[in-house]
Design brief:
The protein is globular and about 90 Å long. The chain is mainly α. Helix content is 83%, strand content 0%. It has 14 helices and no strands. The two termini are 51 Å apart. The longest helix has 40 residues.
């Protein structure tokens, strides 16, 4: 091996490393586009059963079926957004965001009631909080000057969200209209010998993930019904919106239900701010916690095992371990994409490594 061969090998290695770095940098710069594609793909998978129903059962043309499906999804999204308007308005009134004096009176009253309820002397409580007035701290922090900055930030977020929404809808339309569009893009990077198996894998993944996302919507709907009934029984205003918001957090496995529970309890308490703590606020918060516990028991022992086992053909314990591992490696995002990602990997392994003993064991239900 002469010096020329060694130098060529070094240059080739440097070129490969440089190419990988440039590719990663390029992917980082277009991460928003990748996110749009991923969200659009999920949207297309959710809308896929509707398109098939309109085409096969109602005999509608493909384009018309896609348009109707997109209109339905946009209508649902618009309805969900509209539901949050009265919630924000009501919570704004309850917290008296622009009435600082009233907010201080409400917090003073709540503080006195908590002290009276737990039977602690006021001077002891003052020592625990280092003789600071927490109401005064909160009130002092509510500087009205934050409003213009908040509005500017809100407009920036709204502008970005509008562009993202339009991009996702545009891409989703073509994903639904031409189901082979994404497949063609993937096949461009696959050798001719592997095309048939790749196509079969993509079809299998599409079917399983469509069932998974539809099952996920069913899971959220079940929790939404339980939470709504609970809040209506307790007598909380905007019960439907609060229930939907808290049920939606269950998309994040294990952590999401905790976040949803905290939000529901906090909104329950702020909805009754100014009322008696021991006879109104605390009992209602307790009833809400009972409803949350019932919902999670039903979800963990009935809904999730049934939906996951039937949609992605995986054992509940298998799903649990995969979600925990993905959460440890990639955080919350990993927990969200763990099940669909694991399902796709299983399908690919079954198609390309079907003779492997471990693969056979993992994919026997597929």
């Amino acid at each position: 091996m002469n010096a020329k061969t060694i130098s060529q090998g070094i240059l080739r290695s440097v070129g490969i490393i440089l190419g990988i770095v440039l590719l990663l940098y390029f992917l980082w710069m277009i991460q928003s586009v990748i996110a749009y594609l991923a969200i659009a793909a999920v949207t297309a998978l959710i809308g896929r059963p509707v398109v098939f129903f309109l085409r096969r059962k109602l005999k509608l043309p493909n384009t018309l079926a896609v348009i109707i499906t997109m209109v339905l999804m946009v209508s649902v999204l618009a309805g969900i957004i509209a539901l949050f308007v009265p919630l924000l308005t009501e919570q704004g009134k309850n917290l008296s965001l622009l009435d600082i004096d009233q907010l201080k009176l409400n917090l003073d009253s709540l503080h006195d009631q908590i002290v009276s309820f737990i039977g602690t002397a006021p001077n002891v409580v003052d020592e625990i909080i280092e003789e600071t007035d927490f109401e005064k701290t909160i009130v002092d922090s509510l500087n009205i000057g934050f409003i213009p900055n908040f509005l500017n930030s809100f407009l920036d977020v709204l502008s970005t969200a509008s562009i993202g929404l339009f991009s996702v809808l545009f891409i989703s339309f073509f994903f639904l209209k031409d189901s082979n569009l994404l497949q063609s893009g993937i096949l461009a990077f696959v050798s001719s010998d592997s095309e048939k198996r790749t196509v079969h894998s993509i079809d299998k993944i599409n079917n399983l993930l469509s069932r998974y996302f539809v099952g996920l919507l069913l899971q959220i709907f079940i929790l939404f019904v339980i939470y709504t009934i609970t809040l209506f029984i307790v007598g909380i205003e905007n019960a439907i919106v609060i229930a939907f918001l808290c049920a939606l957090f269950n998309i994040i496995p294990y952590i999401g239900p905790i976040i949803g529970a905290v939000i529901m309890v906090v909104l329950t308490m702020t909805s009754n701010l100014g009322m008696d703590f021991s006879t109104v606020i605390l009992p209602k918060a307790g009833y809400v916690l009972i409803g949350l516990a019932v919902g999670q028991l039903i979800d963990n022992f009935f809904s999730q095992p049934l939906i996951f086992s039937n949609s992605v053909k995986s054992h509940p314990l298998e799903i649990f371990l995969i979600i925990i591992i993905a959460g440890l490696l990639f955080g919350v995002v990993g927990m969200v994409v763990a099940v669909p990602g694991y399902t796709a990997i299983k399908v690919i392994l079954k198609e390309f490594l079907s003779e492997n003993k471990l693969v056979k064991s993992l994919t026997k239900s597929l």
